[in-house]
Design brief:
The complex is a heterodimer of chains A (134) and B (63). With 134 residues, chain A is mainly alpha-helical. Chain A has four helices and no strands. In chain A, α3 packs across α4. The two termini of chain A are 14 Å apart. Chain B has a two-stranded antiparallel sheet. Classes of the chains: A mainly alpha (134), B mainly alpha (63). The interface between A and B is medium-sized, with 10 and 14 residues.
Chain lengths: 134, 63
Amino acid sequence: VICVDIHPRRRRLFLLTLGVVELFFISMAGSMYYFDAHHPTGTLLYAITAVLAILLLASVGMLVRWVGVGMDEFQRAVLVRALLWGLAATCAICGIWVLFSRSMPTVHMPLGAIPVVFLFSSLAAKLVVKSHYQ
Amino acid sequence: VKNLVRELRADRSWSQGDLAERLDVSRQSVNAIETGKYDPSLPLAFKIARLFGMTIEAVFLCD
């Protein structure tokens, strides 16, 4: 689904973006494990959440830069539409999930599920949007 | 907006990849423009017209 550009500058930007996003997901998974295992409090709690927030902002910033600079206008149009559909699907799925969890506490939604749902719904949306143009 | 990109490209015996390289866009962009499913921005339309040595109005035809 993801096409790596052969242009060196764009490829470098793409790989940098991928690295930052991967770092966010790894940190997110690590933090969730650490929270479950050690229940951090005080300064450590704030430090972990701040690092996660900074990494999330950095990931989004890199994605915006990549979309703006590293892609041609058609690919940008496809990706933006796919991301919007992915966002809509994520809101819908998470909303339904949260409503279920209010009446059935066992159906608890893990925080890490949100980016995963967004990623998969965006990839699915990208396939649908691309097929529209073929 | 209809266009003559496919015909103009075929006249020059260029593949979609050749045209994409000349325009510095992806091959998918060229395909989407040729099939009329994607209308290029004004700068890209100018680039296409200049590449074929024509005006925008001669390459892109209003429906």
